[in-house]
Amino acid sequence: MESGRLRELKKxxxxxxxxxxxxxxxxxxxxxxxxxxxxxxSSQNNQRLEYLGDSVLELIxxxxxxxxFPSYTEGQLAKIKSHVVSERSLAKIASQIxxxxxxxxxxxxxxSGGKEKPSILADALEALIASIYxxxxxxKTKKFVIASVKDSIDSIRYPDDARDPKSxxxxxxxxxxxxxxxxxxxxxxxxxxxxxxxCGVSVNGVEIASxxxxxxxxxxxxxxxxxxxxxxx
Length: 233
Fold this sequence. Notes:
Layout: H1 3-15, H2 23-29, H3 33-39, H4 47-68, H5 74-84, H6 87-97, H7 107-111, H8 118-136, H9 138-154, H10 165-177, E1 182-189, E2 196-203, E3 206-213, H11 216-232
Antiparallel strand pairs: 1-2, 2-3
Helix pairs in contact: 2-8, 4-5, 4-8, 4-9, 6-8, 8-9, 10-11
């Protein structure tokens, strides 16, 4: 591993309040498959770590929620957990940490804004969690995960707040206007393999919000989130 890369990894490790015993694990967690494919380097990408990190994350979050909300049912806990470990929530945490600036991605992925893509950031965070677990053990991993997701959990006042935003918006609009929100695709951009959709949502015949995403479904979801914010105000 080059000295410049080692300095970057030590910088991130210090930022996380950790001292990795094996920095190659941290490097692997921050290596996207596109970088490995284009560079031809023998270092592993983060897909296997992401697989492990997903399970470690869910275990820690489920245990935390089980203890924090003793009166909630299994279904209510599941709704909150789904919100906390969603791609959107994990990508937000990854952005706050600044993971994108430490990611190794291929040239094509870099040019298409790969270091800021929610899916790549969320996957990298899960891989990071796995690297901490393997290098530091479960206790320190719990401390890192709980500190990272606490704001997301605290933002949910009731279990129903964690439901799918399109469902919540539909119920609100039905109650207020006795009709349904209408979604429409406003624009599409980017190559076929990396399309960016912008969708708008109209309530009672008036477009009130829009959202972007790598799929029509994600763009509509983001539009619903923005619409809920405006309607609650």
